[in-house]
Amino acid sequence: MATAEKSKIEDNVVHIDPAAEAERELTDGFHLVIDALKLNGIETIYGVPGIPITDLGRMCQAEGIRVISFRHEQNAGNAAAIAGFLTKKPGICLTVSAPGFLNGLTALANATTNCFPMILISGSSEREIVDLQQGDYEEMDQLAIAKPLCKAAFRVLHAADIGIGVARAIRAAVSGRPGGVYLDLPAKLFGQVMDAEAGAKSLVKVIDPAPAQIPAPAAVDRAIELLKGAERPLVILGKGAAYAQADDEIRAFIEKSGIPFLPMSMAKGLLPDTHPQSAGAARSTALKDADVVLLVGARLNWLLSHGKGKTWGDAPKKFIQVDIEPKEMDSNVEIAAPLVGDIGSVIAALNARLDGSWKTPPAQWTESIRTKKEANIAKMAPKLLKNSVPMDFHSALGALKNVIKERPDALLVNEGANTLDLARGIIDMYEPRKRLDVGTWGVMGIGMGFAIAAAVETGKKVLAVEGDSAFGFSGMEVETICRYNLPVTIVIFNNNGIYRGTDTDPTGRDPGTTVFVPGSRYDKMMEAFGGVGVNVTSPDELYRAVSAAMDSGKPTLINAEIDPAAGSESGNIGSLNPQSVVKKKK
Description:
By secondary structure, the chain is α/β, with parallel strands linked by helices. The chain contains 23 helices and 21 strands. The strands form five sheets. It has a six-stranded parallel beta sheet with strand order 5-4-6-7-9-8, sandwiched between helices.
């Protein structure tokens, strides 16, 4: 045989000559994971290093993948999730086992709820020890814990299966309705060795991971007939419409149809908020009076009062819903015309039907929206123009409204209670996917993770507008921002507490439960890590400081002193914060 000089067969056992073995090119689990990610276009990883994935991060860097190391896994996970939203590719979060994995789960669950494609990759303990509960280092059955919180969860035990595992995770994250996926990689996997040629052949490049889903022609006909018969039609654009990146098709439909549109917060900018058909400043009127409502990438969840109740008024409603998930239809109210498919394909099909027989909505309807919008804007204007000391939320946001107007390509990250609720209505957006906020769950702590990923993925300047409470969840990541020298400007609305900084402990023993240290100087945190810190007390000072920071591109934190009494309980959703009506007897 041709290789007789290098091997011989004795008693049916193959003995490999050591010299022949030395000539073979080998690979291992570390390299196969990296090669699988690179093959599928993954360029950036967000994570926290530690056992057993420290070397994986180092080797990813050496192989050209950018690795952004955070101070806490939840923030890294949030960064990966919003990277998925911005790019339509799964954002990757890499964590250590057990506690680190658990820290990443909030971000994974939030990504799934918000339909952001994300993959949480965690190292883990060995199966044989976990299953017998023998007390391994950070022992935990991570796969079982992750499954209820994401779209899919996979574990890879053999190096030869790494390519398939990564491919399945990618496809699951982006196909259909996007979401979070968990990929479990036990420590022993990384050190497994195999033939390099066989390893290369085991890798899988995912082909067409999110194929178009074309709506049924009959469904399109049904929707068009409903819209044609509407006296007061309304389009609601959700963050799914922003994610779809079907910007031209959506704009063409809105403008050709003449229908007023209402953007949900992360859909702001698909068309400018200043667009003549925008009903954003007349939201209450539009929702109450509309008779046919077209939902595009928006769900009738709590953010839209589940499609019923006082928010929607007494006028009878018929709903048309565009969603890639059939089970979403009729989730709260009857959907008269379900349009199942990807948003780009559905809107293209609707555009094709806007022919010569199409009539724009009655002028009485569009005029009523315009009149209400102008009245509300005029009513709000004096509040935004006040140059008061101390600032309230309106006057401070009025200054930031002008900053964004002058820099429409900047990304705005926003979280808090009053800081979030009021900014949604005050700060106009002009371009798609430029407003990033707490999304469906309203979860606090997304701020710094979102801001970091926004800067990394887009290369553009980022303005993060934070309540002082919300900032506390991820504030240590200002060091990460400085370490990577990212063009992020942070504004903290500092009113000394949650909602307000004026609560007291009736016993006189402790501070009120919602109160922070009065007069805190968050700007000093930024200075401690080499960034720029600024303290401001008036809207004019705030405008000048933020403008200078955005123009410089330097990591900057601006501590904006807000009247401690200016906030309201739970912002605009105080009804969701139950209060006791029972008085305790003394």
